[in-house]
Protein: Trafficking protein particle complex subunit 13
Organism: Prunus yedoensis var. nudiflora
Amino acid sequence: MSSGQGGPHSLAFRVMRLCKPSFQVDPIPLLLDPSDLVVGEDIFDDPIAATQLPRLLHHSHVSSSASDSSDLSYRSRFLLHHPSDSIGLSGLLVLPQAFGAIYLGETFCSYISINNSSNFEVRDIIIKAEMQTERQRLLLLDTSKSPVESIRAGGRYDFIVEHDVKELGAHTLVCTALYYDGDGERKYLPQFFKFIVANPLSVRTKVRVVKEITFLEACIENHTKSNLFMDQVEFEPAQHWSAKILKADEHHSDKNSQTRETFKQPILIKSGGGIHNYLYQLKSHGSAQTKVEGSNILGKLQITWRTNLGEPGRLQTQQIMGTPIIRKDIELHVVEVPSAIKLERPFSLHLKLANETDKELGPFEVWLSQDDSHEEKKVVINGLQTVVLPRVEAFGSTDFHMNLIATQLGVQRITGITVFNTREKQTYDPLPDLEIFVDLD
């Protein structure tokens, strides 16, 4: 806080953060049930005494309640009169005593009182409240157009300000007052209230691609000192993507529950490092025209939660990136591999050549190239060594077959299927190795 300018001030700001109160916990010793003073653990060993237990308990409760009203020494203050007394909660709530921990995504709400501690009335008070961060300064309240006419001696003027916390780090609530004091002197009072905004949770993501499907795993960790009840962890896919959350198989009683349709049970992430994992299945619906070289934005997560007493929070992650797209002029895909491949028997491999550009390409030649090891290939072309393909139109494709033959048993690799553009004299990257199983007749 700062002192004012121009000597002592008649006014002063007092700030209290408005948030949910906390429970008052009494540091009380161990309480006893009144019946424990009358009966022991072995009462059930005697069938006759056990039958008299309800009457004994009733008598003990009556005498304890009677002693409560007449005994001024409070000798019964250590008796457990109700089961809820054992948790140490007195039923009282405590208002915030300090700003406390303030987290990103919450709404900072503050009750501000400007007090006149002098013996004179102050007039024409212009009050401003601003939130200053490392990046910006936001105006929360300004009475310039309608100043407060006066605050009597010993009086006060109260107001409430709110601010959605969207930045981490140091924040300063700046409260200023411009007023006329009792001597008619114009004075300016600034006061500063500083606090730090912390991150309530961290989000770690992993992206894996299996064939044409992308899987996104999001791990959310709770860094606060209270439990977080996650109302929503929703993935908003980018353009040309769709997303579906994957969950474990649910119990049949949950599937048939009618209440489950109207009430979505929040997911609890415990305080001080509790974690929960979410898994999403993403599919791309973009065509070749929509692909952007070097970029693969998948989308972002929208996260909302509530704390123990229902205070809401909301965060949005930055864009989550997948594997960068490397744009290729042509793509060679395997369409079909025979289910049974016999030793030294010809078989046909079904392939597709796709033109990923906006112009016509070709003609092409396809062959099996030799690798650097110069080892004898276990799978070779049967017949013509080169397959000739016609020109392929822009964003078009053509299907063709390669006749091959395997010369050894077991798991073998088809390597070095290479495409050559005869017009532009350009050789493209070979098709990734393809494994097959060769069996006897």
User: Anything to note?
Assistant: The chain has three domains: 11-20+95-198, 201-248+264-287+295-321, 330-439. The longest helix spans residues 53-70. The first strand starts at residue 11 and ends at 17. The helical segments are 47-51, 53-70, 252-255, 259-262.
